[in-house]
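4.2 Preliminary Data

To establish feasibility before requesting continued support, the project team ran the inverse folding procedure on a target of 498 residues. The structure was first converted into the token representation described in Section 3, and no sequence information of any kind was made available to the design step. The complete token record follows.
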């Protein structure tokens, strides 16, 4: 608090970062001419750190969104207005875009160590699989995250919600296109995690505003939010194949079976055996329940008695704690292949268990450090001392999940943005969609996305516009080099496709 009670405390708004609340002063833009190279390829590009004004139709400033742009240039320093431009971001809600940038698809990448913990001084290298090979790319930090800030007279609730967030991003994207003269460029969206919810709504509302989208990438997607509601059987069904993949990874099940084949077997068991059993609830015969528990045990590596005690419904926190309990370990959430020492017996809070994730601890600090060094040392950008790489406590916990479902006359309390995707594709059948998921992602499980899209009953022609990619990875697919290479080549081919 300010020592002078008559002085406005500019840090009292938790969504502001370090920017003064009233004027929203932000640093001047900074840029540098750089070169990316890998093998025989080389791209000259301009990297620019700047803020975009997010302005309402009435001209009211809603906030300033931080952007880090990478634009390929020719010898004269000019950009190609016909080159695609991709707007990319992470999710949360409350996460900045650093992971997908310095971890995944940007021109620079922190070298990782498989499923090991990355050292703080890990090398930063040119990313051989960057999407810069095919498209200019603009990384955006959602308002309230990173160095993005909310205007002093803008109610945070108006931009911290499904619809308000998508509206703010649509305005920021249009601002960038206008400021950079790129309206003729093919437009792509690339979102991870909650960023896939954002993208699903964005691809619809941008079209409604006359901004056609050429392609959308959904990495580690979640579409129907009902699956996270308490007691929802769709949650347990989605977790089942991921549990099976994790148990196999740690040698507790599926020995000698190809991991993809094992995952496919788990998908089949989920739909043909587990789903009918769960739908019956306590009407399921006790003998049949024991039979299903025995079969499930062989997939997930937990004793049949444990599964029976949970009536075949095992929460993720319980699974993470139980699977490696005999080793004194707990497996990860974002990527269940990661593991760390078990938590203290007194640390039983579900929120704490969810937040203590070896997969995040292993990589995210190194990414943020590399990003800060890049902005300060190579671009000369003087950002605030604190960068909100994650602001979930102030943003995500206050998120407005209500969503105006297209074609309905009410706001759904639990959004199903698969409907938005279907509407957008019907309106723009030339748009293409890439859906990417991993076997070891327990945050946004693969089965649920397949289920949600199948319930949209797209025509065969529209289904052909949807490309599916499943890898042996977790939530952050780019963490391990083999997956990054496979995904990079698949995306390279996807960007070339008409």
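Position-by-position output of the design step:
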């Amino acid at each position: 608090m300010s020592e002078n009670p008559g002085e406005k405390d500019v840090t009292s708004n938790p969504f502001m970062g370090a920017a003064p609340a009233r004027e929203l002063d932000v640093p001047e833009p900074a840029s540098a001419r750089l070169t990316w190279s890998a093998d025989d390829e080389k791209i000259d590009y301009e990297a620019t750190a700047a803020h975009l004004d997010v302005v309402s139709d009435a001209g009211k400033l809603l906030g300033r969104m931080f952007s880090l742009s990478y634009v390929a240039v020719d010898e004269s320093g000019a950009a190609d207005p016909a080159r695609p431009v991709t707007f990319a971001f992470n999710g949360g809600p409350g996460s900045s875009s650093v992971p997908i940038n310095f971890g995944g698809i940007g021109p620079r990448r922190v070298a990782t160590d498989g499923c090991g913990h990355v050292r703080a001084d890990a090398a930063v290298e040119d990313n051989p699989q960057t999407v810069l090979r095919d498209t200019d790319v603009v990384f955006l930090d959602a308002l309230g995250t990173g160095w993005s800030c909310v205007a002093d007279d803008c109610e945070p609730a108006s931009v911290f919600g499904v619809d308000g967030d998508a509206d703010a991003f649509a305005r920021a994207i249009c601002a960038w296109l206008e400021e950079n003269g790129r309206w003729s460029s093919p437009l792509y969206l690339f979102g991870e995690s909650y960023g896939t919810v954002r993208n699903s709504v964005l691809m619809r509302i941008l079209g409604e505003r006359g901004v056609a989208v050429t392609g959308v990438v959904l990495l580690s997607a979640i579409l129907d939010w009902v699956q996270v509601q308490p007691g929802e059987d769709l949650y347990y069904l989605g977790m089942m194949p991921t549990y099976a993949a994790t148990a196999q990874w740690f040698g507790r099940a599926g020995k000698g079976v190809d991991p993809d084949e094992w995952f496919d077997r788990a998908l089949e068991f989920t739909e043909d055996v587990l789903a009918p059993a769960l739908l019956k609830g306590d009407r399921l015969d006790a003998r049949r329940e024991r039979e299903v528990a025995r079969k499930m045990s062989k997939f997930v590596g937990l004793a049949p008695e444990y599964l029976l005690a949970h009536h075949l419904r095992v929460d993720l926190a319980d699974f993470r704690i139980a699977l490696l309990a005999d080793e004194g370990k707990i497996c990860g959430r974002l990527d269940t292949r990661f593991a760390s020492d078990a938590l203290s017996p007194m640390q039983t809070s579900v929120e704490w268990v969810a937040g203590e994730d070896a997969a995040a601890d292993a990589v995210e600090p190194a990414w943020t450090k590399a990003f800060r060094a890049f902005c300060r040392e190579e671009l000369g950008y003087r950002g605030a001392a604190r960068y909100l790489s994650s602001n979930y406590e102030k943003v995500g916990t206050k998120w407005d999940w209500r969503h105006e479902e297209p074609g309905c006359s009410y706001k759904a309390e639990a959004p199903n943005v698969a409907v938005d995707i279907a509407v957008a594709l019907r309106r723009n059948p030339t748009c293409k969609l890439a859906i990417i998921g991993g076997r070891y992602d327990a945050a946004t499980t693969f089965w649920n996305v397949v289920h949600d899209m199948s319930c949209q009953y797209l025509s065969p022609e529209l289904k052909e516009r949807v490309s599916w990619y499943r890898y042996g990875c977790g939530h952050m697919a780019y963490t391990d080099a083999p997956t990054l290479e496979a995904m990079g080549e698949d995306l390279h081919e996807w960007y070339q496709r008409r």
